[in-house]
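ugh ok so i messed up the first submission bc i forgot one of the chains. this is the corrected input, ALL of the components this time, i swear. 976 residues overall. if the numbers dont match what u have on ur side tell me asap before i send this to the collaborators (the ones from the other lab, u know who)
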Amino acid sequence: MKNSKLLEIKNLHVSFTTYAGIVRAVRGVDLYLEEGETLAIVGESGCGKTVTVKSIMGLLPEEQAVISGEGAQINFHEHNLLAFDEDRMSAIRGMHISMIFQDPMTSLNPTMKIGDQIAESLIVHKGASGRLARQEALKMLRLVNIPNAEERIDQYPFQFSGGMRQRAMIAIALACDPEILIADEPTTALDVTIQAQIMELIKSLQRERNTGVILVTHDLGLVASMADRINVMYAGQIVERGTTDEIFYDPKHPYTFALLRSVPKLSDHKQEALYSLVGTPPDLIKPPVGCPFAPRCRFAMRICRDRPAEATHFGPSHSSYCWLHHPKANTSDVPETLLKEVV
Amino acid sequence: MDTARTDMVVADEMFQRVGIDEELSEHLDKPSLTYWADVWRRFRKDKLALFGLVLMVAIIATVFLGPLFSGKDYKYMDSSVKNLRPNAQYWFGTDDMGRDIFTRVCYGGRISILIGFLCTIVMFVIGSLMGALAGLKGGWVDNLIMRFAEFVGNLPYLIIVVILTMTMGRSIFAIVLAMSLTSWVGTCRMVRGQILQLKELDYIEAASALGANTTRIILRHLLPNTMGIIMVQVTMSIPGFIFGEAFLSYVGLGIRPPGTSWGALASAGQARLMFHPHILFFPCIMIVLTTFAFHLVGDGLSDALDPKLRE
Amino acid sequence: MQTVEVLIEVNNLKKYFRVGRNAFVKAVDDVSFNICKGETLGLVGESGCGKTTCGKTILGLYSTTDGEVIFDGVNIHALRPNEKTEFTKRAQIIFQDPYSSLNPRMTVGDIIGEGMDIHHLYKGKEREEKVFELLNTVGLNKEHVNRFPHEFSGGQRQRIGIARALAIEPDFIVCDEPISALDVSIQAQIVNLLMELQRSKDLTYLFIAHNLSMIKYISDRVGVMYLGNLVELTTSAELYDNPLHPYTRALLSAIPIPDPQEERRKQRITLHGEIPSSINPPPGCRFASRCQFAKEICTRAMPPLVEVDKEHFVACHLARQF
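and heres the new structure output, hopefully the right one now
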């Protein structure tokens, strides 16, 4: 397992300076990604998932964002990306690590032909000649199933539909055959039938090229169909991690539990209310001292508001940060599934 | 199980169930800031704009309070003190009829600034109502208003001013009317553009779904949300009107003596330029400083209102 | 579904938007359905299918190109201005985007109170109490009354929008994608709130969404729209158990289900081809270009919406043949 770790983040803290104070967006995140796997980072808006992946890419606004944390590291092939300057980072970006964004319209250059945008990274990173790059771009467009690629290569983004733009984005991201693809809410802006096409595409390309994928999303359905492992984030911290099956069938953190139960299943009928979470995530200007989820957790104990919980391990891949798994915890009214296997 | 924790001693009562903290979960932490408080917070950071604001306040204060301190009358002629250079008694000197220039600059400034404000208010009221109506109603209303605006915008401004001042006399009212009659066209276009953007927003639709009529939608929803941009235009156009009035007075179409304005003072001073430049210098410097101050404020305001610059 | 009293009757509704000299976007093209008192009718479809336009036309926010909307026996597009104001008291809307749907320059209290002011329902102290009561109904508290929208989170803002719609005590609310801009944990809050309000205030909903699992959960009946047409309309259970239109089937199979094992088992129907433009669409079934079963007739004639089973309407030439 050690050798195949493509990327490893250790104790990452990111804060932003705003007028109202310092927002502690990411507060001690550890995660890793292996070759060819899909890691999903699941969480709600503002939980720090996008900030985490943007810090991998070195895309945080320099004047506001501060990356800190004792021994904070983002290791990629024995290099700590946090120590890289802008020049070295831009050699990594697009070449070794690529990213696709939620909104393909704003991340494509509207005044540049699609083909040139794909070819650009090949020319920059691989020193390919113009002709070669164009051929390669054509190949990429075909790969992402764009019909009439020969014609489309000379069109501009506005001539593409939303789904095609996202596919063009994927073509750009994968042009240099990167080892890691970061997909930040890649299909939120798209319709379900188009979303299904895009996700199938990413999956098949990943299989072909053994790319490691980090999928950032709040859509649990998407995660269920795509991910191998899941990290659940809440208020800047990871609260639970495990394989997809462990998270979906055996959640150990009350937040994960609530998140899964709050989505209606297709087999559900309109009878009883959905399991819902009250309130809103905490303001990260003044993050809670204890467990960040404690104010909204119906199983919260006094200690939860007082002290952050430590990890409890349920297996080689499954761990959760929750006081309920402490031997002394009051478990009287806690659902069985949150507790079992705990001694 | 986690080994680190087994040695940890935690009191039993720490594991009491407390459940959901209703108080905390709906709590708003950020201080409440109204729109203008937020604009002020950003405006304050811009030192140059702040300097402009201080200068603006200082000029207005001088113009209105100055004569109290100089203790002189702007009309009083003293033939023994003609064309004096600035000195301890006459701070800005005296003119060719022995009047105190400082007091005259203050009185003239009142008129100039008053005209600037009045013209801006008229321009802004007519322009924004017309623009809002055109933008909101669209169709033939829009067409009618915009064609009319084009017509007015193309009228020869000087001829209108001459005709108006000739028929109505050279009063403040005539000057304000003459200058604001054509100036609202720009405001109208700008407000219309803003409204066209705003009216696509859901809250406008929500208001009409609630049964709000056009007047209510314009006054309660559309105009307050264009106020920021209007404010910038207002601060930027006041010096324009001051200049405009100065120009009219300079060519003899402005304020009639014994009343005066900066433009009229400059016009009178111009004749004495060779031997007594201070008579021209002081009204001119006031015009320049005022224009400068308003523009600094306007620039700062437009930066402070720019949503892209909001953190 | 005990009550069969019809509240809203939509007959052959058409709404075209002119986009050029002879080009029209046929956003809603000949759509008919009923909404019964106390029920929730779901309207589902992908972006650009006309579901939002349909909802807004029913409220009279857009004029019709053709067809009529009968609300409690009255054609709402033929009302005089003062009657129209009366109608707005009975039908309200909740928007998708909790950011653009609240006037940033008004306090929460004024936003919620606006409807009362327009219809002169309450004044002074009474108005204030009513606003507090509404804030309480949607789970916010009194202290929020003087705050501005930008200080709230998305879910809180959506609840302010709900309170605004409730303020004038309507019978009917169009919920235009009220949850799709919200986080998962907040979606359930809003859906629960809407369902609870429906029970306590006897409301009728037209619930517009693209999230099929949520719409199935909240609706009694569901209509599926595709490019301006209603292609299938039936009870929500029937729609999921027995979808008849190929588009409904594809849509159902495309929704990712939050169940990994189910996802691995599932054979997904992937649609090929892009959605055709709704500007002067071709004759025939609008779905034909992406339909794997399309026959010659499908490109020639537009299939009518017919009742193939009790309460199960579908617009497909080949329904039941595949």
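quick check: The first strand of chain C starts at residue 6 and ends at 18. that seems consistent at least. DSSP finds eleven helices and twelve strands in chain C.
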